[in-house]
Amino acid sequence: MNLRTLQEDYIDLNPLQAGGRTVAETRLVVNSYADGYAGYDQYSGPFFQIPRKETALLHKQLNEFLGTDEIFFTHGVREAKVLLFQSILKDGDLIVIDGNAHFSTIAAASKLGLEIFSIKNSGSPDYKIDPRDYEAAILQLKKEHKKPKLLVLTQVDGNYGNLVDARKVTLIAKKYNIPLLLNSAYLAGRTRVNLAEIGADFIVISGHKSFGVPGHIGGLGVTQKWVDKIQDPSKEDKPWDLPARYLAIVGLYASLETTDKRVARWDDEVKKANWFVEKMESIGGIRLVGERPKQHDLILFDTPVLEKIALTKRKKGYFLADELKKVGIVGLRPGQTQQIRISTYGLTREQLDYVYKTFVGLVKEEKYGI
Amino acid sequence: MNLRTLQEDYIDLNPLQAGGRTVAETRLVVNSYADGYAGYDQYSGPFFQIPRKETALLHKQLNEFLGTDEIFFTHGVREAKVLLFQSILKDGDLIVIDGNAHFSTIAAASKLGLEIFSIKNSGSPDYKIDPRDYEAAILQLKKEHKKPKLLVLTQVDGNYGNLVDARKVTLIAKKYNIPLLLNSAYLAGRTRVNLAEIGADFIVISGHKSFGVPGHIGGLGVTQKWVDKIQDPSKEDKPWDLPARYLAIVGLYASLETTDKRVARWDDEVKKANWFVEKMESIGGIRLVGERPKQHDLILFDTPVLEKIALTKRKKGYFLADELKKVGIVGLRPGQTQQIRISTYGLTREQLDYVYKTFVGLVKEEKYGI
């Protein structure tokens, strides 16, 4: 295997990878735990769920950060949703989700045979979810003599990077006495998201999406009243599968030691995202899709100008990623020019200015746009 | 989190950890892939199952090593068994397993509601599994008008470290036309185990148990006729959970580059285990449990002499692990003195001689034994 040097050699715009970049402190700890079964030094059982003496403080710190009473580790967010759904719902139960939900929410629900009512977004150009539509959905379902057993809100969706105010959905959830799950995969870890302050019941988080954790780890955070209802398979006498294992958990714990620094820069990350959107739109033929102003670093652009250029190229849409890679920019999905999806997270304004100027060059040289 | 320096600071006898120790080459590659989602650089889908261009050669190399036609990655061996069972068996089906099987075999079977017929081992002092008992089991079940749908053989068990000749079980499996699964968690990777040469149908392997891979990864290897029967959840259009993820897979692929060196020393590892058994038994009051001579590095000793000493101690059984730790030896289960379970894998004769002399000192000083 070749060593991976992509983060060192390129400016990486890949929106999936932005929040997962590790800091040296995290890598150092994880590397020291790299041996197989390194988490079993004390013979005190595997490295998950029940916090162990050596990690109790960090486990407490994570619960405090998230405003949860217990957090169950899983391989990822989809497995965290499966864990919740199979613990509190049964085949045929109805849930209300937002129309910007990740497909893994639907996959997790389909595993349990749940019925899904999906709230539409506002369509072009904002594609926003209106919290009030949760109430409208509940009332509409009531007319059909149906009551949802769970509301699911994607706090920030992975497509547009739109942020929904979770507190407003919480008020509706409380009014109708329906538990609420926040999918915070793209938010908690970039910034502080506190379940207790928001007043919802459950939160799912992603270490590799937003906490800068190596490998893959998700978590299901719950409030006290739900702790005993979560059917954790690892607590079985003879578990047939295990949730997240020690190396990913070590990484999550290790990342907590630098999380304060990480969340402190969130306001500037959002400012930077808006600054970059303004610059890119000034080129012409490139336009933000999703809410404006942005409240997050995930950015989707409509890019008709690039699509036009692609028509003139032998490589068609593949010209774009190829041209960018030549000048040190990666992370665009090869072949796509109709829209591009990027993240500005963790990049400097100087790097982003270089990206902007590269796009100016691409467009001007081709005599399209400005 | 503190850095883990246990492998640098101590002689580690922990039998779980012996085969999972990583070499520098593996760590270097894995560290370079440490960022969350680092496996998604090419936007070519996740880093499992279907081999990708950049890892196709290593995937082929792994299949050649194991004599398999395809290998499906999972989080661990138990999940690999679940994957196989749910792919080819159904609720109520009967399987025959050996009495030294790991509890996760039983857990995996119980998940599917399988009926289990367990072959007894030979009891004290060898606790061996006789391959001929598979035929006896099949004939006995036939009298009850039952036919097993699968035979499962633990090639090396984790309790005694006994090795069973898989070829002999294969002959029986073929005679009665019943597929055979080899649980090779403790063998393949330490040495070459080749499914095609053995003639069985399935093999499960463990990266962290025997290939020196960081984190956790298991694999289900199958022959060509079974490839399409494996119901890989990651191949669903909307998978609700994913098998082993990229960091563990990178580790397994990386480890293959040093596997030749690793397996080349296996004969000496076995010799060393027998040499150590002889030394330890010469102390008196310490006696090997399991087959003799040993064919593996996992060693279980009856240690009545240590149990006697423990009775005189304030800390009771905990004295042993405590005393050993003071002189730089770790890996014994704290509190246990009736039996001790260790591995000699990867330790030098000089280190093992030091361990032996330490036990001599413990026993002599206490005026027990010799």
Can you offer a commentary on this structure?
Two copies of one chain form a homodimer. The first copy, chain A, has two domains: 6-19 and 263-365, Aspartate Aminotransferase, domain 1 (Alpha-Beta Complex), CATH 3.90.1150.10; 24-257, Aspartate Aminotransferase, domain 2. In chain A, helix 2 (24-32) packs antiparallel against helix 10 and helix 4 (77-88) packs parallel to helix 5 (103-112). Chain A has helices at 6-9, 24-32, 56-66, 77-88, 103-112, 132-143, 166-175, 195-198, 207-210, 246-256, 259-264, 266-281, 304-311, 318-326, 349-365, and strands at 11-12, 70-74, 94-98, 115-119, 150-154, 180-183, 202-206, 218-222, 287-289, 298-302, 329-330, 339-343. In chain A, strands 2-8-7-6-5-3-4 form a seven-stranded mixed beta sheet, with helices on both faces. A three-stranded antiparallel beta sheet of chain A has the order 9-10-12. In chain A, strands 1-11 form a two-stranded parallel ribbon. The mean pLDDT of chain A is 92. Chain A has 370 residues and is of the alpha/beta class. Chain A starts with 5 loop residues before the first helix and ends in a 5-residue tail after the last helix. The interface between A and B is large, with 72 and 72 residues.
